[in-house]
Inverse folding.
């Protein structure tokens, strides 16, 4: 049992250091892998498979739940643009007005 525990801890430590490579779909704007865009594509595929499954095949994918998952993923992907492009932020100010000018106070 101790040998298994040592092997398991070594495996976990290596995975924490290296990470687990997961392929993401590249965002066309930022040119990097995007988790939210990957979720949109996966959820859209589930909706399409669910609709095709209702017509001819019996795939047992609930289209209503797949659509709700798609709506949530789409809101995540498109909603992040509100702060990334200088739009509204949580506190209501725009990111372009948040630039502070440093003035030297001489007393």
């Amino acid at each position: 049992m101790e040998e298994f525990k040592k092997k398991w801890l070594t495996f976990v430590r290596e995975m924490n250091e290296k990470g687990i490579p997961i392929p993401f779909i590249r965002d066309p704007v930022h040119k990097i892998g995007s988790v939210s865009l990957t979720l949109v594509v996966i959820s859209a595929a589930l909706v399409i498979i669910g609709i095709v499954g209702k017509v001819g095949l019996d795939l047992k994918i609930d289209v209503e739940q797949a659509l709700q998952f798609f709506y949530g993923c789409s809101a995540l992907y498109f909603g992040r643009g509100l702060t990334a492009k200088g739009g509204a932020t949580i506190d209501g100010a725009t990111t372009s007005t948040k630039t502070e000018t440093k003035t030297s106070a001489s007393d």
